[in-house]
């Protein structure tokens, strides 16, 4: 391959004018530092924990220091202390634009606005604050897991408010773009309701579903398939961080939990009737059908691969024996066939010695891929 | 590649002695027919719909006919009619072992046993019936989606009962093995409770979660990430089939829904307090932490890749520009590096032009893969 793949972009100049100061050098703060430092922006770091700050410096996320001449300050501390730190930062950095990256916006904005009302900061200070929220992150945490590309291709919500300065909003939008993200402007309540639906309630629901396995016997767990794995994957999240997020978005989350409970209660009542009087008990089939049907409609609203334009791909599924080298050999064969691969998924199951690889291609390439793999000895499912 | 990959197994002789008769030639029945026919077993098919039967025959799943001399009959009809068809089949095939493959076992077994009690069948007939349940299937349905490898590597639950003949149980266990599955013997209630926890309640919960998106604005959906997609993927299931399954397993499902509702109610109450009195309202953080923590423990009980022995792999994540040929080029490069790939996952996000490919390898191969891909021009995340 003489031409380097385009996944190594030419290092383009960023627009964010430094220095940038980062308060809180965990996963998000250190990742921001790494990305900016890589782009040649001067970054300073501080953290309540000297050890955490030193670690972030050591991974290359910036230099330790108070960042007195910073033009932008990113407050990347846990959501329960974000507002306090924003207020302190606005006072200690009278010329900087200040953003926080907490997962909840209304409660943070509310506390910062309260500080302006009671005089702890001036209205001119409030104008320099623009809350934001990069929709990025991993199960891992801390600076050791920091990654300059954490934000690449992800949305970054920017939250203006009544007293904000337009130039400050532009500064934070620009920062997001420089970090590879797509800025999306939303009001604080709009943001909180949105993340309640697409992030916070899914977390709660996954956790509650996984908790049903606490009492399940081993034989039940042996039957686990991809459906269970998908619905409970995020149940492995960090309890402390998520508790702070959930109580910080308590109203919108509680409202959606109430609606979910109502759906479950209706179905449960219909099923109790079926359990007592038989599956054809009046209303049982209708209630169950309705629950699944409404879910069909809901899930169809999630944007496809390119934000709403969901293309149709053809799936070619191949059996992959679970032995060393097999998956790599499949990659070689697929690559040599020269078919453009749009997507790829692997499926495993417990105690099994074979996996299923699903290769998504444009429909008119499916036959060529199927024939090509078949000719190379692969068992292509359905052919 | 001079040596064919081992994913094309030598066609091994099956132990199931035919003929085998399949009643109901939808996805499961036609897949069973295809697999047996491929192994040289004589298969006959019938279906209440002549068109469905003809389609199954046309895809190669067997010959149309009553299968009078069948030694094994597989009843593959919807769960709400499975028991009736089993009873009829036992009477019309007095020498065959009869199994059904419905997703719910106790209600089917109960109705078949009732038929023995009231004399519609004899106890000798009941002894030839062995309920079973292949844990396999796709969102697609019907014989057009039939696939002889549908059961490969999957569990197949076999359900003995008090009046069963041991030889009949062995016949069905053998059938499962011949179809590439792993037989697991469970009692009917044990099966129903197990699938309620690992399959039926996850379906309900995914549907109820997806229904929360019905009223979500477009901007909210634009923030959707992998967590939402994973937790709602199975919400795309078929409502009619799933309604029949849920009402057929009504008791166990209702019990788990009640437990889930109780968890949600407890959290909702704590969050209402936080919404009214602030995030630090007594009890709010504890309640939220507890929900997520219990989910941590529950999800950790799901078996890893090889049934309980969860190995640790190292993940190497690569940015893949969303342009034709890039993913294929990655496959070529990975293959050429000769690193054994244990698992592979792709992550996309709406309206983004880049994806993230996560390649799982044994930990001591991670550096070699990272360096190798980096040297070939790939942007490896975190390096």
Which key phrases capture this entry?
383 residues, 3 domains, three-stranded mixed β-sheet, 11 strands, homodimer, Alpha-Beta Plaits, Rossmann fold, alpha/beta
Structural write-up:
The structure is a homodimer of 383-residue chains. In chain A, the strands form three sheets. In chain A, strands 3-2-1-4-5 form a five-stranded parallel beta sheet, sandwiched between helices. With 383 residues, chain A is α/β, with parallel strands linked by helices. Chain A starts with 19 loop residues before the first strand and ends in an 8-residue tail after the last helix. Chain A folds into three domains: 20-186, 3-Layer(aba) Sandwich (Rossmann fold), CATH 3.40.50; 218-300, no CATH class; 314-381, 2-Layer Sandwich (Alpha-Beta Plaits). Mean pLDDT of chain A is 89; it is low at 1-11 and 305-311. Chain A has 14 helices and eleven strands. In chain A, 45% of the residues lie in helices and 14% in strands. Chain A is globular and about 65 Å long. In chain A, strand 7, helix 6 and strand 8 (182-185) form a beta-alpha-beta unit. At the A-B interface, helix 7, helix 8, helix 9, helix 10 and helix 11 of A face helix 7, helix 8, helix 9, helix 10 and helix 11 of B.
């Amino acid at each position: 391959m003489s031409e380097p793949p385009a996944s190594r972009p030419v290092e383009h100049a960023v627009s964010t004018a430094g220095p940038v100061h980062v308060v809180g050098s965990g996963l998000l703060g250190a990742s921001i530092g790494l990305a900016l430092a890589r782009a040649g922006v001067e970054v300073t770091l501080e953290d309540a924990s000297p050890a955490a700050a030193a670690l972030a410096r050591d991974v290359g996320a910036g230099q330790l220091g108070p960042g007195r001449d910073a033009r932008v300050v990113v407050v990347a501390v846990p959501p329960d202390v974000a507002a306090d730190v924003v207020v302190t930062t606005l006072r200690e950095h009278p010329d900087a634009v200040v953003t926080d990256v907490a997962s909840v916006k209304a409660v943070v904005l509310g506390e910062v606005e309260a500080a302006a009302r009671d005089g702890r900061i001036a209205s001119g200070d409030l104008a320099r604050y623009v809350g934001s929220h990069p929709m990025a992150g991993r199960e891992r945490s801390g600076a050791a897991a920091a990654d300059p590309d954490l934000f690449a291709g992800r949305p970054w919500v920017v939250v203006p408010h009544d007293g904000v300065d337009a130039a400050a909003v532009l500064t934070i939008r620009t920062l997001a773009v420089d970090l590879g993200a797509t800025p999306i402007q939303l009001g604080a309540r709009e943001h909180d309701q949105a993340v309640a639906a697409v992030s916070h309630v899914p977390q709660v629901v996954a956790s509650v579903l996984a908790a049903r396995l606490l009492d399940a016997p081993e034989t039940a767990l042996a039957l686990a398939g991809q459906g269970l794995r998908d619905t409970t994957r995020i149940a492995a999240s960090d309890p402390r961080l998520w508790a702070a997020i959930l109580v910080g978005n308590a109203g919108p989350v509680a409202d959606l939990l109430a609606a979910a409970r109502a759906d479950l209660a209706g179905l449960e009542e219909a099923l109790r009737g079926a359990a007592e009087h038989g599956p054809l008990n009046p209303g049982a089939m209708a209630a169950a059908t309705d629950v699944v049907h409404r879910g069909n409609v809901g899930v169809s609203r999630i944007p496809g691969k390119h934000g709403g334009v969901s293309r149709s791909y053809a799936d070619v599924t191949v059996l992959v024996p679970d032995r060393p080298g097999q998956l790599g050999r499949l990659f070689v064969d697929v690559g040599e066939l020269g078919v453009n691969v749009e997507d790829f998924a692997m499926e495993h199951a417990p105690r099994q010695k074979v996996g299923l690889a699903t290769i998504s291609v444009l429909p008119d390439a499916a036959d060529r891929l199927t024939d090509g793999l078949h000719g190379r000895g692969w068992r292509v499912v359905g052919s």
